[in-house]
Predict the structure.
Amino acid sequence: MSVHKTDIKRVTTHVIQEMKTRGEKISCLTAYDYSMAGIVDAAGVELILVGDSASNVMAGHETTLPITIDQMIYHAQSVVRAVKRALVVVDLPFGSYQGNSREALSSAIRIMKESGAHAVKLEGGLEIKDSITRILSAGVPVMGHLGLTPQSIYKFGTYTVRAKEDAEAAKLLEDAKMLEEVGCFSVVLEKIPSKLTKMVSESISIPTVGIGAGPEADGQILVLHDLLGINKAFKPRFLRRYAELNDIMHDAIGNYIKDVKSKSFPSMGESY
Ligand code: KIV
């Protein structure tokens, strides 16, 4: 029997919320293309983020800043075509929501209409409250993102742990409460101390999803290519690699080259 999209119970924002309520951890990963998204979804994660980390991982940029809304939509469309179960969230890219809530709404609407994704994610707190509120008022679910927000890398100057000082930690907690109050369904906490993650997760009713934020978040997210060991050079403390695909792929491709050179590929059985 073939499996149709409708045969599978989809993960919704309500499902994510219920998971926090009953204390079940939420597993999340990024994906940017059809083939990988299909594997990630079939493996059973609850949430797939079409992250603007595509700017680094897929396009080779140094930061997330250059990726455009058209490029995010292209990635999101590819992911949505593959996903049967997970909730698909798409990052609003740098410059598409910060200065103007009208522009934020039209960016979010473009992403939802053109990709078929289920929610959007925005980086920041009080500074972008108007944009978040306007998007939410159109019925688009919003995920927040606090702590290390890579779109602000030139303000921070480094990718080190955020909110170690009391003042920044207090602002982060206030921002998290604001995100809950205006109606966000979840919030990513990136690279902050575990103690602060615990405090935020206990202070708000919506799920927190951590990356480099310790075990106290309600869920965890990693960049798929990092978890799979595709980029050997990236080894931050928070990353656990579950495979060394770079080595496996390198060896496989090396073997192919060898077989082509030695004329052992293709064999007659692999020919017509
Ligand atoms: O773009 C991204 O991949 C992200 C995650 C790291 C949370 O925002």
